[in-house]
Amino acid sequence: MTVDERRAWEIVLAHIENDLLLGRLKPGDRLPGERVLATDLGVGRSSVREAIRVLEVLGLVRTNVGSGPTAGAIIVALPGGGMSALMRLQVAAQGFPVADIVKTRLVLETAVAAELAEAVLSAALLRPDRQHPDRQDPDLGRCAQLLDAMDAPGLTEDEFLALDAAFHLSLAEACGNQVVIATMAGLRTAIEGYVRAGVGRLASWPDTSARLRAEHRGILAAIEAADPAGAHGLVHAHISGYYAETRLAPEQNRTHNG
Amino acid sequence: MTVDERRAWEIVLAHIENDLLLGRLKPGDRLPGERVLATDLGVGRSSVREAIRVLEVLGLVRTNVGSGPTAGAIIVALPGGGMSALMRLQVAAQGFPVADIVKTRLVLETAVAAELAEAVLSAALLRPDRQHPDRQDPDLGRCAQLLDAMDAPGLTEDEFLALDAAFHLSLAEACGNQVVIATMAGLRTAIEGYVRAGVGRLASWPDTSARLRAEHRGILAAIEAADPAGAHGLVHAHISGYYAETRLAPEQNRTHNG
DNA sequence: GCCGACTATGTGGTCTGACCACACAGCCTA
DNA sequence: TAGGCTGTGTGGTCAGACCACATAGTCGGC
Questions:
Q1: Chain A residues with CB inside 8 Å of B96's CB?
Q2: B40 beta carbon < 7 A from strand C?
């Protein structure tokens, strides 16, 4: 007769997490109905709802009303939205300084670019013999596609920024690391408002936009040229330069406790 | 007469986020009571509770029952818990492959070590003139303290792993980047179960533990010796070596789509 | 026989009201 | 004055009800 000191919604959350770990629930599966879950676990429906709400915000489930096979809470495991919400709110609550967001993005994206270039290099070296089927060129098609879209005349600032965000995210996606993809998406979302505000502090938007596009081309070229160090440096200059220009991050030189 | 298509709990969440962004709510402040918030926003108390539950899991508020100044929902902005929950559940739901968690940790922690070493270097170079008061030695005291604790005889495996996790986290804390701190905590939490299981696959725990301790000392020494490249390499070898040994991450060589 | 409209059913979304345990603040008694 | 006692407000929980919605099945007209 030990009492469960956890709150009711924590019981529900732990139960679902356990089902996930045991493989009883997989992406695409449907959760039992809220009323069923409530009676099964001996808690109220509102407690079940609180747990499902958490899962929804964290990007684990998607809820649909109505009837049929698509209704109910479905496991999706899309971490991007959850990471974005987490970081956005933490920035709002002053738990994440904007400067730390920028610096983390710098670290991750330079690493991504370098890794992509190394992947290109490996693929080129090993192409003659087909003994390494897992070594293949990363898919940079979408990256180039987005760069082409950014060259379209008459783009508004917001459209350009959206394409810019998509390009940077597409680099992470080409790399294939789900954690980095979600984190990069979250980092970008968290400072999206600040990025927009920063555009207003630019001396000349056309000049900056042209420079950004040229830098993007350079980054992609360095990756395709299998130049890890070059790609790393270009991404570093691209990101830190832009944030310095918009005065988003106070001092880019400070590498510690900044 | 425009209808608000958002769900009720999203209205509450957006309202609180807006208050945070406008500075009407800061860390340490108390949220209005659930009943007050419900009537003010024209929603039911259960919807308010769902929103607060989300904020709690994301690490933005801490709730306390009872009366007095410590009761109610208080803004705390502690992202570690939220990041841990997010990553742990995403691993459980197969949204985050364990290999990606490990690789991301590798990228972040090598960058942290290199940055710490650079900070030591900068502090040493600029120590003669006091013109750069923001350039100071990172606080590595806690790191060394944890290493000493890991040398204590008779430590159980779990105790050792806990100290190991604390040491790696203390490096990030010395670096001061809140985003990296929270992310590292989350990454570690997400694979904690796998790390424990991996210990059982080791040939000899005493040997491995001794090697890990030595590697820790080496990393800290490289940082204190202001050797960024050395610190980077030692951390890389330390992490990838351990995960390879425990067969946690299948192939450390694969740098792309692995 | 075929196709449309209609209805039954089950889902999440929401609100309301009620009760509990808890913690503090103030009172009240010894 | 010191101790316990009670009032009050907090979050935590549950139960019940209703809604909008989407599907699946039925029934009707053609």
A1: 79, 178-179, 182
A2: no
Task: Decide if B236 contacts B248 (C-beta within 8 A).
Answer: no
Spatial contact of A77 and B90, defined as CB atoms under 8 Å apart: yes
Instruction: Specify the pLDDT at position B9.
Output: 97
Residue B1: which pLDDT band, with cuts at 50, 70 and 90? low
Question: What value does the mean pLDDT of chain A take?
Answer: 91
Q: What is the ipTM of this complex?
A: 0.91
Test B50 with A53 for CB contact under 8 angstroms.
yes
Closest-CA residue to A96 (of A182, A167, A194): A194
Please report the residues numbered 186 through 205 in chain A whose beta carbons come closer than 8 angstroms to any beta carbon of chain B. 187
Predicted confidence at residue B4, as pLDDT, reads 75
DSSP H helices in chain A: 8-21, 34-41, 45-57, 79-92, 98-126, 141-150, 157-175, 178-190, 192-199, 205-224, 228-245
* CB B225, CB B218: distance < 8 Å: no
Nearest Cα of chain B lies from the Cα of A23 at a distance, in angstroms, of 9
Tell me, what's the pLDDT at A257?
Answer: 37
Band of the pLDDT at A252, cuts 50, 70, 90?
A: very low
Could you tell me the domains of chain B?
8-77 (1.10.10.10), 81-245 (1.20.120.530)
Alpha-carbon gap, residue B112 to B167, rounded angstroms: 13
Percent of chain B at pLDDT > 70 equals 91
The token pair that represents B162 in the structure block: 């806990």
